[in-house]
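Hi V.,

Quick status before I head out on leave. The structure for the redesign project is tokenized and pasted below; the design run finished overnight.
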């Protein structure tokens, strides 16, 4: 494992500092990527409440069903396990523990992956305490990757790109189905040391759907093939897209590909600390607009990467420090890019019923500008 118990303890203690600065007495974090970020454990959600509990004084506890205590005690250094039997109220146990720990309980922060039922249960047992969202605290930490996280993300991105390049060179035969090509790409990924992999393969007119579904359509020579490849290693994601033609592309496809390439390069050139996230979207969109394809670029430019495949920062119009996009729910770092943020740049043009071309690279914000983690933008459309 690349991360140790000391790494997760450091994250937890940094979180308690942020809690103290924001007047949050206890933090409740449900299973999900936030829980994994703070504990290193990949716990699945269920109807049985299970959570990391942190106090602003630095106390740590795990709330869990009693029958899971033996297992959890063997995989965590958190010594306090608040165990509840099936007939008991886990939230009452949390409230009792919080009061016995001393100190006033005026504000309880909930992680953004908390279920509504957990909110209701906590609110019902803490009396006059305010139950408030802790979204900004958690996202504000996660969006800035540590140097150790950056090493993992560079590694997963590099492997992912190499796997896709090799698959294009060796796996295509005329008439192979989208589904079979996707399967071969995934198998190559898993054999190359990636922990999970999924590939969406769309060919010909199917490529005009940004989130289409891979099917049994046979892939012909000289037509557009669009492959979105998502992978993980140690929980951290890479997300890339290459659009290719096995054979000879037609002039229209080449023209559109060149526009998308220019849009991607324009956005990457603008990525630097302090730049508003929306500015990158504007840079790419202006290139596509000038080429006459503006109405065919139908989604945001990109999204953050980490333990989630879609997370902050979101490269989208409106993420400018005054408001946050609806799917972000919080204005993280005033909408500005900062060093060690990792994100995708994925401009695209989709001509419904004809073709779609997207180029997606993973990049990081460096101290002075953009650090490419992949280089799909530099690859051509035609593949032999």
């Amino acid at each position: 494992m690349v991360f140790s118990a000391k790494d997760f303890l450091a994250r937890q203690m940094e979180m308690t500092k942020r809690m103290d600065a924001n007047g949050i007495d206890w933090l409740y974090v449900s299973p999900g990527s936030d829980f994994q970020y703070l504990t290193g454990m990949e716990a699945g959600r269920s109807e049985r409440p299970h959570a990391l509990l942190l106090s602003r004084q630095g106390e740590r506890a795990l709330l869990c069903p009693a029958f899971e205590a033996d297992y959890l005690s063997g995989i965590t250094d958190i010594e306090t396990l608040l165990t509840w039997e099936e007939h008991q109220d886990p939230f009452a146990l949390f409230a009792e523990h919080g009061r016995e720990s001393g100190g006033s309980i005026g504000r309880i922060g909930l992680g953004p992956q908390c279920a509504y039922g957990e909110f209701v249960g906590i609110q019902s047992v803490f009396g006059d305490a305010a139950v408030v969202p802790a979204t900004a605290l958690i996202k504000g930490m996660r969006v800035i990757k540590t140097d150790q996280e950056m090493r993992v993300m560079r590694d997963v991105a590099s492997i992912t790109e190499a796997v896709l390049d090799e698959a294009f060179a060796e796996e295509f035969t005329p008439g192979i189905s989208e589904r079979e090509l996707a399967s071969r790409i995934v198998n190559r990924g898993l054999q190359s040391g990636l922990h999970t992999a999924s590939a969406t393969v769309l060919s010909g007119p199917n490529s005009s759907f940004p989130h289409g579904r891979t099917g049994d359509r046979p892939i012909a020579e000289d037509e557009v093939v669009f492959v979105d490849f998502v992978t993980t290693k140690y929980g951290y994601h890479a997300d890339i897209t290459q659009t290719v033609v096995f054979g000879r592309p037609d002039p229209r496809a080449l023209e559109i590909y060149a526009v998308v390439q220019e849009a991607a390069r324009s956005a990457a050139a603008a990525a630097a600390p302090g730049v508003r996230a929306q500015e990158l979207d504007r840079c790419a969109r202006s290139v596509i607009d000038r080429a006459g394809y503006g109405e065919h670029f139908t989604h945001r430019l990109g999204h953050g990467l980490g333990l989630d495949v879609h997370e902050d920062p979101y490269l989208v119009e409106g993420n400018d420090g005054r408001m946050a996009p609806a799917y972000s729910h919080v204005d993280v770092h005033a909408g500005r890019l900062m060093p060690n943020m990792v994100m995708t740049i994925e401009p695209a043009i989709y001509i419904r019923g004809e073709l779609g071309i997207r180029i997606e690279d993973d990049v990081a914000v460096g101290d002075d500008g953009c650090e490419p983690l992949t280089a799909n933008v530099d690859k051509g459309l035609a593949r032999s």
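Above is the designed sequence. The two ends are 39 Å apart (CA to CA).

G. will cover questions while I'm gone.

Best,
W.
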